[in-house]
User: What shape does this take?
Amino acid sequence: MTGFSAEWLALREPIDAAARSAFITSRLSELLRTYGASPRFFDLGCGTGANARYLCPRIPGPQEWVLLDSDQRHLQRAAELLAGYRRAGVSFEMRCLDLDGGLDALLFQAGAVVSASALLDLVSGDWLGRLLQRSCASNAIVLFALSYDGRLVFEPGEPDDELIRALVNRHQATDKGFGPALGPSAATFVCARLEALRYQVLSSRSDWVLDRTHARVQESLLRGWAQAATEIAPGERGRCERWLSTRLGYLDRGQSAMRVGHQDVIGWPSPPV
Assistant: This one.
């Protein structure tokens, strides 16, 4: 799987937290109260543990977390950052696992929560289909946050914004380590597949809304998008470079803003077990 630096994960964490759907999180809390059991969370592709840090204080009662990532350094950092979140009945286990090849090693049980943040747009439909099949066969709750859905809105607008958006979305569908990635179609895919598996499903937008206070994140995104667009369409290199130069100019003058579309999705057995 394509990795992300700990620096980037730290930079995006407060933006992720501000974007996440409070409605979806509250629905998870309601479901867990209905089940009346201490949940076991499986956090897939956990990075440095941001998903656990977001959910843990918002979920009442005891919790058992299993955090899974292929990067041992991220897991070590997650353990450090989660130390302050431990309380009576709350535990965190770090497990190094290659999600692409190690999915079958995971054993879910009824009442478990299978969760991931900013992961689904990177995986293939085949991989995600197998994950959902195994999750639903165990009557687990599934919660997937911050899946990129293809929407990019820039302010001020420029004529080549749509070109860049289209090329970026094509790049999002290339192999990120799991086969051809779902990219912007991930949230739609998971909702349709869960419904086919007779799950109840709710989704909600969880967009990043970036302004002048997020200059470092904006710059990183703009440069990354220009590079991705050029990789997909080398013949458009000149337009991509001019677009980047113009957008960085807006950023330098404190005039740049953008919205990056994401979706949060929760699914649970129908009727609840």
